[in-house]
Design brief:
Blueprint: E1 10-15, E2 26-31, H1 34-44, E3 50-54, E4 56-60, E5 66-68, E6 71-82, E7 88-104, E8 111-116, H2 135-149, H3 155-160, H4 163-173, H5 178-186, H6 190-207
Parallel strand pairs: 1-3
Antiparallel strand pairs: 1-8, 2-7, 3-6, 4-5, 6-7, 7-8
Helix pairs in contact: 2-6, 4-6, 5-6
C-alpha cells in the first residue's frame, strides 16, 4: 500500500496516447523502446517503483516534442516478465493521480517531471462507491453500445463487478479519443466518472465509434 509519504516529488513519465490508468486499476504494458526499458529498470531500483502515465497533447513541448496533459496517474510496478529478446511485459497498479509542475531537464533518455499530489488524497484510500448508480439502466445502455459496435464481453463478470471496478475498467478499455480519456481521468469522483462515461457512450451510439473487443 502506497502512503502519502512514499510519493516522490519527481516522477518518470510515460506519454502514451489513449492509455488510461486510474487509481486501484491495473494497466498492462508492453515495453520495448530502449528509453522506456531504461525507465522501467530505473523504476525497479526505487522503493516505490512508480511510473507516471500521462497523455501527450497537441501543444508543443520540450525541443518541439509533444506537450503533456497537466494531470496523469502514477502506477506501481506490481508484475513483470522479460521476453527472450529483452522486452518487458509489465503491469502497473494505479496509485494516485498527480499534477505536473514542470518538466525536469536531465540526462535520462526518458522524460521526468516535478509533480504535485495535492488534491488527490482520496486516490490512496479504499475503493469508491457510487450511491446513485442505476446499474440496470447502465448495463442496458452498455448492451446497446456493444451490439452497435459488435463488441463482446463476459456479461456475467460485468454484472457482478463492484461499481468502481466496472466503471474504471470500461473507462480504460473502451476506445475513446485522448481528450475523452483525459476527462475520465480528471473526474473528481466515481459518480462524475460514471456520468462522463454514460455521456460518451450515448454520444458514440449517435455518432459511431471504432471496433474493439473486450475480453
Amino acid at each position: 500500500m502506497i502512503k502519502p509519504a512514499d510519493l516522490p516529488e519527481t516522477l518518470p513519465v510515460f506519454p502514451l496516447p489513449g492509455a488510461l490508468l486510474l487509481p486501484r486499476s491495473r494497466l498492462p504494458l508492453h515495453v520495448f523502446e530502449p528509453r522506456y526499458l531504461q525507465m522501467f529498470e530505473d523504476a525497479l531500483k526505487t522503493r516505490e517503483r512508480l511510473i507516471g502515465m500521462v497523455q501527450p497533447n497537441h501543444v508543443p513541448g520540450r525541443e518541439g516534442g509533444p506537450g503533456l496533459y497537466a494531470i496523469g496517474c502514477a502506477g506501481r510496478v506490481t508484475q513483470f516478465s522479460e521476453t527472450e529478446d529483452g522486452r518487458y511485459l509489465i503491469t502497473l497498479t494505479g496509485a494516485s493521480r498527480f499534477r505536473i509542475r514542470q518538466e525536469v531537464q536531465g540526462f535520462t533518455p526518458y522524460r521526468r517531471c516535478d509533480v504535485s499530489w495535492e488534491g488527490f488524497g482520496r486516490d490512496l484510500g479504499e475503493a469508491e462507491e457510487d450511491p446513485a448508480f442505476d446499474r440496470a439502466a447502465f448495463l442496458a445502455l452498455l448492451e446497446r453500445f456493444f451490439a452497435a459496435q459488435k463488441l463482446s464481453t463476459d456479461w456475467d463478470t460485468l454484472k457482478e463487478a463492484e461499481d468502481e471496478l466496472l466503471v474504471n475498467s470500461l473507462s480504460m478499455l473502451l476506445d475513446f479519443n485522448p481528450e475523452d480519456k483525459q476527462a475520465l481521468l480528471e473526474a473528481p469522483s466515481l459518480t462524475t466518472r460514471r456520468e462522463t462515461l454514460v455521456t460518451l457512450i450515448e454520444f458514440a451510439l449517435r455518432g459511431g465509434a471504432s471496433e474493439e473487443t473486450l475480453q
